[in-house]
Amino acid sequence: MVTTHNLGFPRIGERRELKFALEGFWEGELDEKSLRETGAKLRTSNWQDQEQLTLAPVGDFSLYDQVLDMSATLGNLPDRAGKADENELDRYFRIARGRSPGDSDCCGVHAGEMTKWFDTNYHYIVPEFDASTQFSLDPTRLLEQLAEAKSAGVNSKPVIIGPVTYLWLGKSKDNTDRLSLLDDLLPVYGELLQLLVDNGAEWVQIDEPILVTELGGEWRHALNLAYHNLKANPAKLLLTTYFGQLRENLQLACELPVAGLHLDATNARDEVARISDWLPGHKVLSLGVIDGRNIWKTDLNATLDWLEPVHQKLQERLWLAPSCSLLHVPVDLNSETTMDPEIRSWLAFARQKLEELQLLATALTEGRESIADALKTNADAILSRRNSTRVTAPQVRKAVAAITPELGQRKSDYQKRSAIQASHLKLPRYPTTTIGSFPQTKDIRQTRLRFRKGEIQPEEYEARIREEIRHCIHEQEKLGLDVLVHGEAERNDMVEYFGEQLEGYVFSRFGWVQSYGSRCVKPPILFGDISRPRAMTVEWIRYAQSLTDKPLKGMLTGPVTILNWSFVRDDQPRKDTCLQLALAIREEVLDLERAGVNIIQIDEAALREGLPLRQSDWQSYLDWAIEAFRITANGVKDETQIHTHMCYSEFNDIIEAIARMDADVITIETSRSNMELLDAFKGFQYPNDIGPGVYDIHSPNVPDTDHIVSLMNKAAERIPAERLWINPDCGLKTRSWDEVIPALRGMVAAAQELREA
Ligand code: GLN
Ligand code: ZN
């Protein structure tokens, strides 16, 4: 039989059991024992789901984050976590979530920084290093789970993050060279591996996904050093890579002295032949043949077509697995009882993916005939998807094929059109605005929920949302803001709202994926050619404009963000899908313009998230992403002012692309960077208007007017004052009106002060 294994299973639970247990625990409604019991139950159930595998992962489960777990295992929680003899869970959550002053922590503890896990939408807690960093092993978590797995009858394969990737993921707080810590780190890994073996493990999965990124010489050297050092260890190491191709690191990955190598064969199919030639004869090659990042069924026959010869060559040295941890997909498709059955027949979530894996292994060992029925069913599903008229819309394809560069071109350049806009809009210097959403009160959420459930009629729903819009406009007028918004009360989520109205999308009910800690997202599923049957936002925004003489800013989500926050089709390049989205949102932009909306904001919060893992691939992504934005935005008249918004704090390396978007105004998150972020815009001589966020909306603190004035003065040192706007960092939907009103009042006062100065 071919060895099968899995790199990790979703830990949040089929019904988000872990989320609710965690939140109950944080609220003090659940004690530690119950939380730990929930964890144990989830692990047991996950192992049951993986019963058929030769090796099941152990240690992939985490109460918050696998990188933070590794920091705890290596004795590298920051000092502010508390003393080593304090409650372990307390220390862990202090770093996971931070703690406000009061309770047991007099001065409060700030959480560890969170950042994206490679190119996924999962976020991990960044390990912290400094010159005094020392490591010491705490194997408790892994040994407990190993023992648990043993008593559950699991053939265990512990999963850990490799030493070099661990250092790479972290940040040095005092410019200490992270790699200088490797010498101290390796003995701890040595100890850990020995202990795992002593406790019954034979194989250990050691993740070094940095092998699919561009590595400097010192990092490649560190990999060599680390694995030569760990070679003497009795554990059989499966060096594990995922999310991309090895490319220039291929030889290095093949030569490191380990017992096996795992390759993401969904991304690096082209490298399989070379690796199977190069890999020394004593090594195992594990191929990730099932896409762990997407929700489509695998084409089993097509996979077997290329896999069979590899199997013939490698025989028992070939292992099979999903491409990466299944953390990135929902648990069980069988929960989706209300989904369109045709589309459901094309999908596979974590449990289904493991079934597919089993089928492939059986077909390789016993021949395809042995699973003829299953292969036929699979082939039917693949064919049904390929031929479905719901997937292909000829008029959409025609429109994409007819795209010309002119479509993304404004009528006039920024200089000319900004003068036209100024004479139309008559805005004061330092115009004030917000990013779109206003507080989503309990009442609004309930109204939406009850409407969804059919408990209130469309007329009543509409009346309530209108009431909310009226209130929102009224408050903004009272505050004296210059450019108003309708407040987004009708939107649950900035992507889902549009996905629900576009042709080509379906939604799952339980398709949750962990984003960080207890936070989950339910990405909509983009399965077919995208079109917009009718206007999506115009009525609400037109209504809002009818209530005020001030200019109103219409609010849309851009094509790149919609793409990056969805599960997207794998049967065409992402670029093509993005262009389809661009054409659909473009129509909405033009409809808004026709409805008399003179300012339109197109949010691209997730533009940066789509950046490929290797910098050498960035340009081609940015080229089509920016083209898509331009197609969406630039069909308007000179009089119409286009805004865009982005909320992250790294622009340096993509500033050229941002400038190419050519939005008349860009609003960004800057308050926490003390306006230093604007250096990137200054250095590039960014030509258009900028609204640098003047206060952090994540915090309930009311910003101080003087502070805002001083921030704006700093901004004006970098960007000419006549091109500056004043706005918060991001949308206000998570705040309460009590917080929003004084904050915006301070902001408007600051603008007045600046104008008079
Ligand atoms: N317009 C959105 C809002 O204000 C933007 C959200 C975001 O940037 N993440 O909520
Ligand atoms: Zn934002």
From TrEMBL:
Recorded metabolic or biological pathway in which this protein acts: Amino-acid biosynthesis; L-methionine biosynthesis via de novo pathway; L-methionine from L-homocysteine (MetE route): step 1/1
TM region(s), chain numbering: none
EC class of the enzyme, as a word: transferase
Residues binding 5-methyltetrahydropteroyltri-L-glutamate: 16-19, 116, 519-520, 565, 609
GO BP term, example: methylation
Source superkingdom: Bacteria
Catalytic site positions: 698 (proton donor)
PANTHER family hit by this protein: 5-METHYLTETRAHYDROPTEROYLTRIGLUTAMATE--HOMOCYSTEINE METHYLTRANSFERASE
Physiological role: Catalyzes the transfer of a methyl group from 5-methyltetrahydrofolate to homocysteine resulting in methionine formation.
Protein name listed in UniProt: 5-methyltetrahydropteroyltriglutamate--homocysteine methyltransferase
